[in-house]
Amino acid sequence: MEGNLKNVLVLSFGFLLLFTAYGGLQSLQSSLYSEEGLGVAALSTLYGGMLLSSMFLPPILIRKLGCKWTLVLAMCCYVAFSLGNFYASWYTLIPTSILVGLGAAALWSAQGTYLTIVGNAQARKTGQVGKDVVSQYFGIFFLIFQSSGVWGNLISSLVFGQMPTQGTIPEQQLQACGASDCLMAVASTNSTKRPSQDLIYTLMGIYTGCGFLAVLLMAVFLEPVKDAQLEGEGEKQAPPFWSTLLSTFKLLRDKRMRLLILLPMLSGFEQAFLSGDYTRSYTTCALGIQFVGYVMICFGAVDALCSVLFGRLARHTGRTVLFALGAVTQLACIIALLLWKPHPSQLPVFFVFPGLWGMADAVWQTQNNALFGVLFEKNKEAAFANYRLWEALGFVIAFGYSTVLCVRVKLYVLLGVLSAAMAAYGAVECMESRRADGPLATEQTKPAEEGVTQTKL
C-alpha cells in the first residue's frame, strides 16, 4: 500500500477508536447526568478548555513534538475522560473535561496539519493538484471517523437496552417535548432515569478499552511527517516563543480569516444542538434514553457516507455547490424542528432529522477543513488552531445557554448563525474570485503548497 495512504488510514482508524468512546459519551452526557445540569456543564467546561488551549497550545506542541506525538499525547487526555465517567461527579467530570478540552485543540490541529502535509506530499509525487488530494484525504478520513458515531452509539444502546429504563410517558410530558421544551435541560423525568451502575461500569469499560487501543495504534503505526515547505526554506532560527504563542491570533490579520470564523462557530452550534438538545428534548423526552444511541447511529452513518462522497464531488462541483447544499439542508431541518411535535407513534421521524443533519454536517466537516487547509496553507498550524478555537467557542456558547433557554429560542439562534456564516462565506468566495482574476491568477497552476490562491475544490 502507498505510504501516504497508509498513514491516512492509520490516523483515521485511530480517531475511529477514540471517538467511538468519546462520541458515545458526549451523546449521553445531557441525558445520563441531568441532575443539576452536570452533563451539559461538563460539556461546556470541556469546550471552554478547548477554547483556551486553541489560543496558544497547538502550534507550540506541533513544533516541539511533531504531529504524531502531539496526536498521541492528546488522545491520552480523552482516555482520562472515559475514566472520569466511571464515578461521575462534579469532582471527576469537570477536571477530566478540562483535560479533554486542553488536548482537543492540539488533537484536531495536528490532524488537519498532518493530512494537509501528506496530501501535498502525495500530490508532488504523482503530479496531481495539491488541493484535490488534500480534499480526497479529508474525505477518506471523515468517512472512517464519522462511522465512530455508529459504533459508539450502538454500543451504548445495546448495553443500556439490557435493562429498559422507560415506563409509559405521560401526555403532559410529551406536550413539553421538542421545541416547546423549557425544562428538560435540568429536570429528571421518568424517561431519563439513569441505568443501573453495573451497566454504566460495563459501558465505561468498553469505551476506555477503545481509547487505549487508539493510543497504541497511533504510537506504533503512524509515521512521523515533516513539512516539505519548511524544509525547503532551509534551517532557520526558531521563531520567538511569543511569536509562536500568538501565531493563532496573528492570522486574524487576514480579512478572510476574520470572515471565516463564523463557519467553525456554526459547526460548534449545530453539533452542540444535536448532541445536547435533540438527544435530550426530542429523543429522550419522547422515547427514552435507550433510543439515543440508535438515533445517533443514523446521524453517524449518513455523516460518514456523505463525507467520502462530498470529498470526491468537490473536485467536480466546486465547494460552493456543497456549501449551498449543506445550508439548505440545515435550514430545512431547523424550520421542521420548530414545527414538529415529537410523539412515540412517529418513530421513523426521530431518525430522519439526524440523517439530514448528518448530511449537512458532512459538508461542514470536509469542506471547512479543506477550505482552511487550502486558503492558509503557509500557516496550517495556526489556521487549524483558529478553526478549533472558534468551533470550541460555538460549543461553549451553545452548551452554556442550554439550561436557560427554551429549545425554540436555541433553534432561532442556530438559524441566525447559519445565515451569518453563509453570508460571510459568500464574501470570501467573492474575494477569492477577484484575486483569481488579478495578477496572482498565474499561481493557479502551481501546487497547493506554493500559494493560497487555489481555492475551488
Automatic annotation (TrEMBL):
Cellular component, GO annotation: plasma membrane
Annotated family: Belongs to the unc-93 family.
Subcellular location: Membrane
Membrane topology annotation: Multi-pass membrane protein
Residue ranges that the Swiss-Prot or TrEMBL entry lists as coiled coil: none
Entry keywords, A to Z: Glycoprotein, Membrane, Transmembrane, Transmembrane helix
Gene3D superfamilies (alphabetical): MFS general substrate transporter like domains
Protein name: Protein unc-93 homolog A
Classification via CDD domains: MFS_unc93A_like
Classification via InterPro entries: Ion_channel_UNC-93, MFS_trans_sf, UNC-93_regulatory
Primary residence: membrane
Transmembrane residue ranges: 39-57, 69-88, 94-117, 137-160, 199-222, 259-276, 288-310, 322-340, 385-405, 411-428
